[in-house]
Design goal:
The protein is an alpha+beta fold. It is built from 15 helices and 28 strands. The strands form nine sheets. Strands 8-13-9-12-27-28 form a six-stranded mixed beta sheet. Strands 6-17-18-7-19 form a five-stranded antiparallel beta sheet, with no helix packed on it. The radius of gyration is 26 Å and the shape is globular. It starts with a strand and ends with a strand.
Length: about 575
């Protein structure tokens, strides 16, 4: 047994668990989903390995079923979590003659899963090495692998700034992600009985802006005061991250600039009207000024600019275009295209994790900023604490891979691109996500196509409902489309639409898994998932019948919500 265990945990998830033997040999435990974030069944088909098996999950989780059950194959309904067809179920059942054994089938299923995953990882490793001469086993996550590929194959001589300390905290406030909002919750059929909702999706939005736009590079320069009032070269505006006082135009139905504030429902990122102070990428401020925003710069950081991601995006996009869908090269290029920018936004103040015996743990409590303690019930504790990058005993190897200003610029450029649609007065916009729009009409053909940054039509709905960010759905004659974040088994469209009535809610029971590290167990609990309309990001408007019909932006006065 080893007495040297080194875990890496991020956001409550084990990234890597290294166990050292005789100070010479290392054994690593990793979560393959962090490297290949897709279902095992889908990956098996994409990488052309043996097919994954099927298993009646809900049967074995039934408390009334004996774990030594032997008899007829469980009913088809127990296999529905696998999303298999009746034909696949009948083919599986035909292999048994009332001698289906739960214990034996569980063992076979788990062994086959291990074999399938091994073959996938082996093929993935071979493809990555052939394309980039990179060993995937050195990188536990997809984002770390993407950065290694970028740095070793495409970075060139560009100097990506390392962002630490107070500068990191400053720039982090400008990194607010994609814009996700409900603007109009449903179609007003009283105005037009033939209304439809067109769902448009941008083809690889983040890779598109990474390729097209100039990014911050070089050594950051701090300044104070309104740099725009003293900057004389009007053709070359200051470029960087600025803290500004903002005044948004009062008549904007869909405001552009986001800010994070405290609301009655907790902290939220909203796009308000009114006035407030915030930190923004300079290019987003210049874009907003075209639509009536006014701002005064207080301080910030200036950067040089260069196109640093174009070769990376070009290579992977060409690989994707020239590969068959659902082939290894296609899935590899798709995953890597969307995984690079987020790696650069990691916090440089890393949380460290160590396993200490009870006596040594007591000594550590007085030296570190402890964030979590898990009693392993074997005389040892798993202790989490923050290390500053300057700590001599801290792991500083990842600091060179962090530059949040790049991630802030990428997401800001994406919001700039989407703003051309949000400010189009000829469009009725129902809902927007980071890279998609639900509107009332076809777009001009100049925006439509299969290239990077072009729009593709995903759905045309005869009726649609948008209740809150990540909770929406639509119907046509042939199908229903309902998406609710966090809900494993989405409800019917009719049930979703019923929530437009003020005060309505649905309570749905679903399983949730909890890990118990202390006892080495997983617990499965039934929890209630409540669906209802929330006014977290915009003001809700109801008609005289108490039906949710519209929204309007929240208004801020000196950064505080006012009616």
């Amino acid at each position: 047994l080893s007495d040297s265990v080194h875990p890496i945990i991020r956001d409550g998830r084990f990234i890597n668990l290294r166990i050292n033997f005789a100070k010479k040999y290392n054994l690593y435990f990793r979560d393959s989903f962090l490297l290949l974030p897709s279902s095992l069944d889908k990956l098996a088909k994409e990488f052309g390995v043996i097919n994954k098996g099927i298993f009646p999950y809900s049967f074995v989780n039934n408390k009334n079923v004996s774990l030594i059950y032997e008899g007829v194959v469980p009913e088809y309904s127990y296999f529905l979590q696998e999303k298999i067809s009746k034909e696949e179920f009948e083919s599986y059942s035909s292999k048994f003659n009332n001698n289906w054994n739960l214990r034996e089938e569980t063992i076979k299923y788990c062994e086959l899963d291990c074999l399938v995953l091994y073959q996938i990882i082996e093929k993935f490793s071979q493809f990555i090495y052939k394309l980039f001469r990179i060993d995937i086993h050195q990188y536990p996550t997809l984002s770390s692998l993407a950065f290694a590929i970028f740095r070793s194959n495409f970075l060139g001589d560009s100097k990506i700034p390392i962002i630490l300390g107070e500068m990191f905290n400053f720039i982090k406030e400008s990194y607010t992600g994609g814009s996700v909002d409900v603007y109009k919750p449903c179609i007003d059929f009283n105005k037009n009985k033939n209304s439809k909702v067109y769902r448009w999706d941008v083809n690889s939005l983040y890779p598109f802006v990474m390729k097209l736009f100039l990014m911050p590079v070089g050594y950051p320069i701090y300044f104070e005061g309104d740099i725009l009032s003293v900057h004389k070269d009007k053709s070359e505006k200051p470029f960087g991250i600025f803290e500004v006082d903002v005044i948004a135009p009062e008549n904007m139905k869909i405001p552009l600039l986001q800010t994070r504030i405290k609301t009655p429902n907790g902290y939220r990122t909203i796009a308000p009207i009114g006035n407030w102070s915030g930190k923004y990428f300079s290019e987003e401020l210049y874009n907003a000024s075209k639509y009536g925003y006014k701002f005064k710069v207080k301080r910030g950081y200036l950067f040089e600019k260069a196109n640093i991601f174009d070769k990376y995006v070009d290579f992977l996009y060409e690989l994707k275009k020239n590969s068959m869908k659902r082939s290894p090269n296609y899935i590899i290029s798709k995953l890597l295209l969307n995984s690079l920018y987020g790696r650069l936004a990691m916090n440089p103040i890393a949380e460290s994790h160590v396993i200490k015996n009870n006596e040594d743990a007591l000594k550590l409590y007085t030296k570190k900023n402890i964030t979590n303690i898990i009693d392993l019930r074997n005389g040892k504790e798993l202790i989490s604490f923050f290390n500053m990058p300057t700590d001599l005993d801290g792991d500083i190897s990842d600091i060179r891979n962090i530059s949040i200003v790049e991630s802030a610029a990428v997401t800001a450029y994406a919001r700039i691109y989407m703003s051309q649609f949000k400010t189009n007065k000829n469009l009725t916009i129902y809902y927007s996500d980071t890279d998609s729009l639900d509107i009332d009409q076809m777009l001009d053909s100049i925006y439509i196509g299969n290239e990077l940054g072009q729009m593709k039509l995903e759905h045309i709905f005869d009726d649609a409902v948008f209740l809150s960010p990540k909770m929406y759905g639509g119907i046509t004659e042939n199908y229903e489309y309902v998406r609710i974040k966090g809900l494993k088994n989405p409800i019917k469209f009719k049930e979703l639409k019923s929530l437009l009535k003020k005060g309505s809610k649905l309570e749905i029971k679903q399983e949730k898994w909890y890990s118990d590290v202390s006892n080495g167990l997983f617990h499965i609990k039934d929890e209630i998932y409540t669906l209802m309309v929330t006014d977290a990001k915009r003001k809700l408007i109801y008609n005289e019948n108490g039906e949710f019909i519209d929204t309007s932006p929240l208004k801020l006065k000196d950064g505080i919500i006012v009616d």
